[in-house]
Design brief:
Strand content: 25-35%
Number of helices: 1
Strand order of the largest sheet: 6-4-3-7-8
Structural class: mainly beta
Oligomer: single chain
Order of helices and strands: EEEEEEEHE
Largest sheet: 5 strands, antiparallel
Number of strands: 8
Distance between the termini: 37 Å
Radius of gyration: 15 Å
Helix content: under 10%
Length: 154
Amino acid sequence: MQLTSPDFKDGDPLPRKSVSKGLGGEDLSPTIQWSGVPAEAKSLALTCYDPDAPTGSGFWHMIVTNIPVSESGEISSATLPAGAKSALNDAGTENFTGAYPPPDDPAHRYIFTLHALSLDEINPDEMTGAYVRFTIMRNQLASASITGHFKNNG
């Protein structure tokens, strides 16, 4: 599988819309495009993780399950397809939480990963974000990632 974005290239800064409203952004994920999903996949999930957050365990900005399978496609937090469900992220919301690292921290990485799953669906309504991610990883057939960066210059 391959991931790309019309909003940024792998390793480049995130687009302004993907920064927290508190820093002048829009709390919207970048558009993510994919190709090469395995034929045996039954559903897709998309996550966004900041491993550099000063929490001891990173910070999950977005978890979306039940994305309909297609060999190629496109998604953003502003345009979730019918049937897709957002799980609680580490901010306690079902929305994308934009980048907001502490001032003057080194640039943080925001890793967007599309997971091809062997499950038809994951119902995140009665699960913690951690359990949803556990279910994703346990049923993953393939995955692909793209990483953006952001530095809060205060």
